[in-house]
């Protein structure tokens, strides 16, 4: 029986999923391996009836440059009981599987770490290598190397935000854009900088103060009023969705915005548009201040996850896939494949990346780094002490909308 590998994809899709899977397929096929695709993410590893199919060159060649994921994905997270009672060892032994390749973000990587420990503890002769993906760009890769999918998502997100900015300019209004990024603001900041958005709000900005609804709203009004002072009556504001997830439940409730709550009294933010939530709260503040500003909500997220990958990710994902084979040939396991600017594949051992809970922590925007510093220093628009007198035309207390005072910078 041929040596075989199994590939699965976990979490949500990102541009380049098919490129990785199909490039891994082509590479291992060319070295005489059988390649098995596992549908349903990690759920297939803990099922007695996993849905699998053999991947051949024809399938790989037809799908490698397409968006989406040929292998159906899931966010299934195995429990400790699943590992002890439901791990499908027969799937590996019956198919002579030598390597498990997992493709996914921080949650998938954390589960890959658990699997690596499990395989080692059980002395099962199965290697596992993880390929880091996420449009959030929040896996801790060295040298600020992006995760695959990020650049393609940013490219399309910037395209959408550019059209929104032009709509704002043409119509004389403001577009409020919520961008995906639950724990980090890389995508939002990337879109904001690429489109010269006058205000981008990300969780990392609040490194010296807590995130509150009032601060989010005041940062937005700071940009709007600054532009009024400059004679510009339009613009966009990009907000990372993680900003809202970091809010205290009581703070959101106090806004009076209608939404549903779970059995613990927490607002069910996953069920609503963050852009609509943002727009509704801001509209209440405009009425309180007597400001007549037209705003429109816009969401960027699901529409960029399954687009075709740009050339950067087509190349990068191919290199990651070939790197998987190189690491396997060297006997590596329990690692994440890393390909730097030199094109060389190196292992990042999952156990070295884990935190005290055994999870892979997200990489956040370096708020004091060059990218963030330059954007907030030279592109972003906001009120400073020099604007207080002019801002009194619109605001009774301009100092409350001073960008640096709001953030404690």
What does this protein look like?
This protein is an alpha/beta fold and 409 residues long. It has 2 domains: 4-149 and 309-353, Rossmann fold, CATH 3.40.50; 153-305 and 366-407, Rossmann fold (3-Layer(aba) Sandwich). Helices cover 41% and strands 14% of the residues. The protein is built from 17 helices and 11 strands. It has helices at 17-29, 57-63, 80-86, 89-93, 106-122, 150-171, 186-194, 213-229, 242-245, 249-253, 274-289, 302-305, 311-329, 350-353, 370-379, 388-391, 403-407, and strands at residues 4-9, 34-38, 52-54, 97-104, 127-132, 174-179, 199-201, 235-240, 295-300, 335-339, 345-349. The strands form 2 sheets. A 7-stranded mixed β-sheet has the order 3-2-1-4-5-10-11, sandwiched between helices. A 4-stranded parallel β-sheet has the order 7-8-6-9, with helices on both faces. It starts with a strand and ends with a helix. The model has no long low-confidence stretch (mean pLDDT 93).
Task: Give a quick precis of the structure.
This protein is an alpha/beta fold. It has helices at residues 17-29, 57-63, 80-86, 89-93, 106-122, 150-171, 186-194, 213-229, 242-245, 249-253, 274-289, 302-305, 311-329, 350-353, 370-379, 388-391, 403-407, and strands at residues 4-9, 34-38, 52-54, 97-104, 127-132, 174-179, 199-201, 235-240, 295-300, 335-339, 345-349.
């Amino acid at each position: 029986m041929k040596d075989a590998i199994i590939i699965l994809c976990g979490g949500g899709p990102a541009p380049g999923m098919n490129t990785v899977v199909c490039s891994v397929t082509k590479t291992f096929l060319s070295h005489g391996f059988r390649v098995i695709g596992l549908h349903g993410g990690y759920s297939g590893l803990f099922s007695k009836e996993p849905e699998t199919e053999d991947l051949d060159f024809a399938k790989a060649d037809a799908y490698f440059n397409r968006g989406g994921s040929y292998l159906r994905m899931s966010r299934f997270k195995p429990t400790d009981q699943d590992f002890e009672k439901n791990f499908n060892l027969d799937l590996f032994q019956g198919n002579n599987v030598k390597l498990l390749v997992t493709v996914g973000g921080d949650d998938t990587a954390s589960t890959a770490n658990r699997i690596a420990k499990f395989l080692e503890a059980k002395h099962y002769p199965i290697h596992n290598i993880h390929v880091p993906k996420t449009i959030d760009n929040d896996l801790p890769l060295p040298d600020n190397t992006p995760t695959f999918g990020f650049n393609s998502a940013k490219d399309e997100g910037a395209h959408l935000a550019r059209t929104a900015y032009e709509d704002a300019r043409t119509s004389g209004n403001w577009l409020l854009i919520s961008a995906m990024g639950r724990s980090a603001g890389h995508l939002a900041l990337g879109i904001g900088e690429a489109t010269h958005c006058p205000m981008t709000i990300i969780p990392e900005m609040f490194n010296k103060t807590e995130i509150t609804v009032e601060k989010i709203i005041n940062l937005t009004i700071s940009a709007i009023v600054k532009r009024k002072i400059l004679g510009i009556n339009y613009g966009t504001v990009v907000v990372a969705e993680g900003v809202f997830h970091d809010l205290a439940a009581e703070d959101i409730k106090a806004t009076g915005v209608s939404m549903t709550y779970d059995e613990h009294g927490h607002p069910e933010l996953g069920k609503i548009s963050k852009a609509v939530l943002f727009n509704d709260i801001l509209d209440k503040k405009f009425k309180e201040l007597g400001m007549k500003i037209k705003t429109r909500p816009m969401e960027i997220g699901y529409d960029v996850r399954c687009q075709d990958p740009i050339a950067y990710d087509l190349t990068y994902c191919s290199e990651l896939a070939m790197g998987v084979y190189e690491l396997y040939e060297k006997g590596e396991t329990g690692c994440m494949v890393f390909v730097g600017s030199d094109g060389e594949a190196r292992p990042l051992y999952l156990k070295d990346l884990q935190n005290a809970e055994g999870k892979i922590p997200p990489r956040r925007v370096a708020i004091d780094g060059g990218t963030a510093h330059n954007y907030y220093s030279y592109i972003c628009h906001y009120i400073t002490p020099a604007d207080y007198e002019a801002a009194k035309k619109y605001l009774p207390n301009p100092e409350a909308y001073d960008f640096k005072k709001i953030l404690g910078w």
